[in-house]
Specification:
Layout lengths: L6 H56 L6 E4 L8 E15 L5 E14 L10 H4 L6 E10 L7
Antiparallel strand pairs: 1-2, 2-3, 3-4
Length: about 150
């Protein structure tokens, strides 16, 4: 009787193919995870830079300055550029006891942080398609006290 031989070779080849597939899947998953962590870290840094821009705008507003647009260069070392813009709207809301209109001034601060290296925010399709491009925008609205101390 002829005994069949070579079954162990077939099993070993199948096992090697399965192990190679699992290794390739784990390698790809590791690369995707690393890219996700990098994007998350850049997003957090951009969000903090935009928040710092809002804080800078509030400090300027405290001193009575409301610049239309200002680029902050303090974040260049971290790779981010922050543009802070301020717009104010004054309107009358009701009257005081003497019948004079009550003036109120609403101020809108907007900070945009991005790592484009050029204009911020960027509208260039080549920059927007980069996988490492991050942009965060923060907006704050406040009412500045008038002469009567009301807001």
């Amino acid at each position: 009787m002829n005994r069949q031989r070579g079954f162990a070779y077939v099993a070993a080849v199948v096992l090697l193919i399965v192990v190679a597939g699992v290794c390739a899947m784990l390698l790809r998953l590791s690369g995707t995870q690393q890219a996700t962590v990098n994007a998350s870290l850049l997003g957090a840094r951009a969000s903090l830079a935009a928040r710092a821009g809002i804080e800078w705008g509030f400090y300027q507003l405290r001193n009575g300055n409301c610049a239309a647009s200002k680029t902050l260069n303090d974040f260049n070392e971290s790779g981010f550029q922050v543009v802070v813009s301020c717009s104010a709207t004054t309107f009358n809301e009701g009257e005081d006891a003497a019948g004079n209109p009550v003036a109120k001034r609403l101020v809108r601060l907007e900070a945009v942080a991005c790592n484009s290296g050029a204009a911020c925010p960027s509208f260039d399709p080549a920059v927007l398609k980069r996988p490492d491009y991050v942009e965060r925008r923060r907006v704050a609205t406040t009412c500045v006290f008038g002469a009567a101390g009301l807001c």
